[in-house]
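[job 0412] stage=complex_fold ligand=zinc ion status=START
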Amino acid sequence: MEHALPPLARLEAREQGAHLHPVDRALILLRLAERAMPETSATEALPLLPLAERDRRLLIHRRATFGDRMPCLAECPSCGATQEFELSAAEILTGLDEPRPEEILETDGWLVRVRALRSADLAAAAREKTPERAAAVLVAQAIAEARGPDGETSNRLPDHVWPLIEARVAEREAAAEISLGLACPACGAGWTAGFDIGAHFWTEVEADARRLLSEVAALAERFGWSEEALLTMPASRRRAYLELARVT
Ligand SMILES: [Zn+2]
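[job 0412] stage=complex_fold status=DONE, emitting structure tokens
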């Protein structure tokens, strides 16, 4: 079920997320887009959604808010040339895999149950001081349960088991990410880039909120209408009044 982020919610998102981490900004967009959805349970914890499901929903809400085409910029890692291109939200959605279910890895007598990473895990990793610590926190978060050769649960994996689990978690999460195959028109280099729908949607919402504020300010000053009246009118009518305000 898709829900556009209405103009007032875009202003709210910008205010609420201004000083927050990108992980929190993505959650704010999700919460504001879904707060009017009758099918969403009020108790559903968005920070606990697998990242693949978070991204799927963000793509759907992005498309409902700004349309299917997503303008993007990328810098060539070989020659530094910037290229502009467009992505289709619908095409990306079609290519998305289902979130990976939990799996049990068996190695050297250990049984380790691994689950998909969630926003809450990224937030926990973001609080770490070094990238190495942050990476270790993500692996630890992904381990739902570990049982040693004695059958007892343990929260400490032996040193020789850890790298195998770490590699498997990295592999699972890479498969859940949206990646793009890009080619540079200037030098011909090809590379793979990740596409972060949360950051992309946030940047667009922020720019749109700035534009909305200046439209509302201009029209309120000219015609004396309330912010609420201006934000709930269709964008096309707001633009039409803006034209009038400029020529008269
Ligand atoms: Zn290039």
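Residues 76, 78-79, 81, 184, 186-187, 189 surround zinc ion (CB under 6 Å).
[job 0412] exit 0
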